[in-house]
Structure formats: structure tokens, C-alpha cells
Specification:
With 534 residues, the protein is α/β, with parallel strands linked by helices. It has two domains: 260 residues, Aldehyde Dehydrogenase, Chain A, domain 1 (3-Layer(aba) Sandwich); 182 residues, 3-Layer(aba) Sandwich (Aldehyde Dehydrogenase, Chain A, domain 2), CATH 3.40.309. It contains 17 helices and 20 strands. Helix 16 links the parallel strand 17 and strand 18. The radius of gyration is 25 Å and the shape is globular.
Length: 534
């Protein structure tokens, strides 16, 4: 799934203004940052993996090995889960899970402050690790800061919400609700928003009083490991957050099937999500899943063509096109289709494709060689099935190394084609036309996925009408890919279930307990009392 997202938040506006005013000196300083050699972060300490295996880190913009990360196996996962169990039981829970929400909020704010302090360094590391343009990566760091600060506030609010009374029809009883941390949670995150996705799971989990084990993608773990160092620096109690990097079939599978994990939150592919759901079902444990998508963007004939062209490009090509919510299916009214698509081609050709650290970069490389080949294969298959590659579809001529793919627009697409039905996870936009609103709705909803949808029209009544009938967890009106830390994020159908962000994100990690007390002095009276029997 899991962002796929751009956090927009008033508290981040100052950060946002700074992000787009990076000086040459800032970039030169960033260029000099090296990747630290980290171990697994378990029980508040750096620990080498038991089997001493490591995975190389490949910079996708130049294919150079720039470091390595530890490769955890089942034995390491067991240690991390044990550390999390100790964290929530230490001092009978008073050190963390039953501590005041204000105590946990203090740690979350301290983490936010440290991320702020290290923002430029973390942004650079994110760029060279996963290929994200530096301006985007720095924007993500602002989102991380906002996420920890927001959930610090919700952690404080938990104290005032405890023992919320329930109105009952009988005055002989009083009832209230307790919200308690669900326990030890497994957080498994993807590579397209490494630290952002981690933050949107870690922050609410810790705010709730859970102890967590984070398993980031092996393709982009660097900033998540740096978060371990930040937690060590702020004095987060040992075992509250553990970070185990490694391969999905080793570390991820062991974590998802661990009997002492009480809940799993996963963002990633639908195929892996299905496996995690199967593993969780064996022990009847709750899961949150934010999975793949094939989101539509509907463009009606009454729009400002250039304004909507930019949103269309942004909705599909942001984060190098590697977004689960990417609006990669353009459904445009036939009366404006030719002119609109021509403008899209001009916008696409104007995107700066470069090393993500270069100033003004708006499209970096695909994350890995395997994903790069997969994207090119999608494009090749579309062409062989009869579609037209209107622009892009290949490596930029000036970039001889790195996993770069030009922004690609494909027309003459049918609804049965692979390019229309399957998630590409690359900078590829497919186009179809419609003549009536009903046809547009049918095309939009004809998918196994249901994460996002976008409607572009100056007719607000139409937009409101479509927002009710489009089958997705998110509907954007006259925009695309925007997200707020206060607003829910998640999908339906094969895009998963449950919601992250906002109060909904906190609820994922809380268990609701009913407490009811009989307050009458009278005997209950259901059974005949033995003392009254003759």
C-alpha cells in the first residue's frame, strides 16, 4: 500500500517552504554523507545478526554498492519479539504500556525533534537508497516529523478518554470503556516511502502503548535503521521499538507467523498481503493491510486543461511512479481527449529526469534492477498487445547507468490488457476515453483494486455524486495523491482493509474493553435463594 502518500499539514508549512529553497551548499554537504554500517536494533542496542549475513545496498541511480544492511533470520526475530514482550511487561507495564500517555508523548516529540535535526542527512540517505528525488525525500522527512508530533498529541488525549461512560437502560448498572494497547505488534513496510511508512505505523503504535518490531523492505532500510539510532539517542525504553532488516521470506515471514505477535500491520503487494493474512489466520490475530492499487483519474470536458494535466502527471509520476495509490488509469472525456493527451505529453517531456540529488530533479530511478526490468516488460507487453507508446517507455538517452525509465503514456488500450488491469509500480500512465458519466464510472470501478480515485471537473455536484459511487477508500476531487496526517488512508477490495493515519490509525493498536459494575444493594434475583426455601 502505505503513502503512496504526500503529507500536507499546516504545522509543516515552514518545513515545506525550506524544502524548496535548498542552496547549492546544502546539496554539496548532502553529497558527502556516507551510509553508516548498522546492525539490528534489538532491545535498545545494536546487535549483529546471529548468522552474520548482510545484504548489499545498491544506489539505483548509478548501480553502485554504497554499503550493506544486516540480514535477520528467524533467530533474530525471536530475540526482537522477546525484547518487545519484556518492554510491555517491565515493572508490571508501568514503564510503558500503562504509563500515562503524556510519558509516551514525550518520547514521540523527542523523536520528532531529532528527525528535524537530522532532516537533511536523512533526506539524502533516502534518495541514494531508493532513488527518490531529494526534494521529495525532504518533504517526506517533514511528514515524518508531523506524524510523530500528531500522535504525541493523541497519546496525551488517551488519558482523558479512559473510562468513557456508556449510557445504559438499567440504573442498577454502570459501565465504561477502557482502551488498552493491543500488545506486541509487527510493522512491515515497503520501499517507496521508507521512513514515512514506518512513521505512520510506529508513531500510533507507540502512542497506544504497544511495543513494536519494524521490518522494512530490504530494498530501502537505511533511514529506518537511522531511526533506531535516534531512538537510542532519545532514551526510548529498551524493546519498545526493535528494527530487524532482512529478506521477506526470512525475517518478514518469521515475524508474520510468530505466535507472540499480537497484531500485524503490513503495507506492500497484494500477493504478500494474502500470505500474511493466511499466517495471521492460523492464530486468529488482527491484521491491517494496505496493498496494491490501479487507481483511476476521471477527467471531464469542463476542466482547465493545463491545471488538470499537472495533477494527472503528479498523480501517476510522483515518487518515480512507485505509488500504490498512483492514478495510473486516465479516463478522459472523448471531446477533449486528443488535446488533453497532447498536453500531457508536453508536461511529461518537460519533467527533469536525473540523479535524485540534482537540483530540480522530479523523476529518479526505479528502486532496483528487478523492478526496472518488470516495468519495461509491462511496457513491452502493452505494445505487443496492440497499445501505442505515445511517449517514453525506455531509458533516457543521456543516462547510461541507473534504473531510469522515461515517463510513459500509453494509448489505444483495451480493458483486457495487462497494462490496464495490473499494477505496474512505475511511471506509466494508460489512457482510455468515455462519452457518458455512467461509462466513466463503469470503467473506473472495473478493477480488483480500490485504494484511490480522482475526479476532475468544475461541476461540483457531479464531483459529489461520483465521490459516492466510486469504489475506493479515497476520492480526490480536482487533485491527486495528497494526504493529511489527520485524514484516514486505506482501501477496499484487493487494496486491503483498515485505515491508517488520523484517529483511525491509533485505533489499530488499541483494544477496547468493556467494564460493567452492578451498583444495586438488592439481590439480583434470577435464581431462587436457598435461604428462602422451606
Amino acid at each position: 500500500m502505505i503513502i503512496a502518500w504526500t503529507i500536507v499539514d499546516p504545522i509543516l508549512e515552514k518545513e515545506k517552504k525550506h524544502i524548496h529553497k535548498l542552496t547549492v551548499r546544502d546539496r554539496e554537504e548532502n553529497m558527502a554523507i556516507a551510509v553508516a554500517s548498522r546492525q539490528l536494533f534489538i532491545d535498545g542496542e545494536w546487535k549483529a545478526p546471529i548468522l552474520n549475513k548482510r545484504i548489499p545496498i545498491i544506489n539505483p541511480s548509478n548501480e553502485n554498492i554504497i554499503g550493506d544492511i544486516p540480514a535477520a533470520t528467524k533467530e533474530d526475530v525471536d530475540l526482537a519479539v522477546d525484547a518487545a514482550k519484556r518492554a510491555i511487561s517491565r515493572n508490571k507495564g508501568r514503564d510503558w504500556c500503562t504509563a500515562s500517555g503524556s510519558v509516551r508523548a514525550g518520547y514521540l516529540r523527542a523523536i520528532a525533534a531529532k528527525v528535524t535535526e537530522k532532516k537533511n542527512e536523512l533526506g539524502k540517505l533516502e534518495s541514494i537508497d531508493c532513488g527518490k528525488p531529494l526534494d521529495e525525500a525532504l518533504g517526506d522527512m517533514g511528514g515524518v516529523i508531523g506524524c510523530f508530533e500528531y500522535y504525541a498529541g493523541l497519546a496525551e488525549g488517551l488519558d482523558t478518554k479512559q473510562k468513557a461512560p456508556i449510557s445504559l437502560p438499567m440504573n442498577t448498572f454502570k459501565s465504561y470503556v477502557l482502551k488498552e494497547p493491543i500488545g506486541v505488534v509487527a510493522l512491515i513496510t515497503p520501499w517507496n516511502y521508507p521512513l514515512s511508512m514506518a512513521a505512520r505505523k510506529i508513531a500510533p503504535a507507540l502512542a497506544a502503548g504497544c511495543a513494536a518490531i519494524l521490518k522494512p523492505s530490504e530494498l530501502a532500510s537505511v533511514t529506518c535503521l537511522e531511526l533506531g539510532e535516534i531512538c537510542r539517542e532519545v532514551g526510548l525504553p529498551p524493546g519498545v521499538l526493535n528494527i530487524v532488516t532482512g529478506l521477506g521470506h526470512e525475517a518478514g515471514a518469521s515475524l508474520a507467523s510468530h505466535p507472540d505477535v499480537d497484531m500485524i500491520s503490513f503495507t506492500g503487494s497484494s500477493a504478500t498481503g494474502s500470505k500474511i493474512m493466511t499466517a495471521a489466520a492460523q492464530l486468529i490475530k488482527p491484521v491491517f493491510l494496505e496493498l496494491g492499487g490501479k487507481s483511476p483519474i476521471l477527467v471531464f470536458e469542463d476542466v482547465d486543461l493545463d491545471k488538470v494535466a499537472e495533477w494527472t502527471i503528479y498523480g501517476c509520476f510522483y515518487t518515480n511512479g512507485q505509488i500504490c495509490s498512483a492514478t495510473s488509469r486516465l479516463i478522459v472525456h472523448e471531446s477533449i481527449a486528443v488535446e488533453f493527451v497532447n498536453r500531457l505529453v508536453k508536461w511529461a517531456k518537460n519533467i527533469k529526469i536525473s540523479d535524485p540529488l540534482e537540483e530540480g530533479c522530479r523523476l529518479g530511478p526505479i528502486v532496483s534492477e528487478a523492478q526496472y526490468k518488470k516495468v519495461l516488460n509491462f511496457i513491452s507487453t502493452a505494445k505487443s498487445e496492440g497499445a501505442t507508446i505515445l511517449t517514453g517507455g525506455r531509458r533516457p538517452e543521456n543516462l547510461k547507468k541507473g534504473y531510469f525509465v522515461e515517463p510513459t503514456i500509453i494509448t489505444d488500450v483495451t480493458t483486457s490488457m495487462q497494462i490496464w488491469r495490473e499494477e505496474v509500480f512505475g511511471p506509466v500512465l494508460s489512457v482510455k476515453t468515455f462519452s457518458t458519466e455512467e461509462e466513466a464510472i463503469d470503467l473506473a470501478n472495473d478493477t480488483h483494486y480500490g485504494l484511490g480515485s480522482a475526479v476532475m471537473s468544475n461541476d461540483l455536484e457531479r464531483c459529489e455524486r461520483l465521490s459516492k459511487v466510486l469504489k475506493s477508500g479515497i476520492v480526490w476531487i480536482n487533485c491527486a495523491q495528497t494526504g493529511f496526517v489527520r485524514a484516514p488512508w486505506g482501501g477496499i477490495k484487493r487494496s486491503g482493509f483498515g485505515r491508517e493515519l488520523g484517529e483511525w490509525g491509533l485505533d489499530n493498536y488499541l483494544s477496547v474493553k468493556q467494564v460493567t459494575r452492578y451498583i444495586s444493594d438488592e439481590q439480583w434475583g434470577w435464581y431462587q435463594s436457598p435461604s428462602k426455601m422451606s
